[in-house]
Design brief:
Blueprint lengths: L8 H16 L17 E3 L5 E3 L5 H28 L1 H14 L4 H8 L56
Antiparallel strand pairs: 1-2
Helix pairs in contact: 1-2
């Protein structure tokens, strides 16, 4: 939390776009009131992004910019406070994800209540637990009549290190 990275660049872009729409398009500003600021017409100019026409004074545009900045800074501070307040829970979730790769909603609820999460259930098919019951009580037998249960069969685990299309 003590450093700023470029990984948040898109988050700031989206937050700025949303705050701008809140103030300029949706009238969601207590200080500027329920009004649209700027033309709703947009046109593409020489392959560039959308260009909007300005129909407000420089002083009003400055007020709009100040309101957008206020919203972004306020919500950034709020988000940071929520993260810092729940740092222990975030750390527990990260540790659980490193251990188990996925979390079920029950495990997330346990972490959020400050409890230690239960290990993943064995009925998800990944740990060789009970079968889904499709075969009923019939036991599988090998070619020589011996019991060839699921536990005796090798487990195939996918390689998670490389992309799906990587065949080398």
């Amino acid at each position: 939390m003590g450093q700023m990275t470029t990984g948040a660049a898109n988050d700031f872009e989206q937050a700025t776009d949303l705050a701008q729409k809140m103030v300029q398009r949706w009238g969601m500003s207590d200080s500027l009131g329920p009004r649209v600021y700027g033309d709703n017409d947009a046109e593409v100019f020489l392959g560039r992004d959308v260009v909007t026409h300005k129909n407000l004074s420089d002083s009003t545009a400055e007020l709009v910019d100040q309101e957008i900045t206020r919203i972004i800074e306020e919500q950034y501070s709020r988000a940071r406070g929520i993260i810092e307040e729940n740092r222990d829970k975030i750390k527990k979730m990260a540790e659980a994800l490193l251990d188990w790769e996925t979390l079920e909603s029950d495990q997330i609820d346990q972490i959020m209540r400050g409890e230690r999460p239960d290990p993943p259930s064995a009925d998800d098919g990944s740990s060789g637990g009970e079968t889904s019951g499709l075969q009923g009580d019939v036991t599988d037998q090998g070619p020589l009549g011996e019991d060839s249960s699921v536990a005796d069969q090798p487990t195939v685990k996918p390689k998670m290190d490389s992309p799906a299309g990587d065949s080398a």
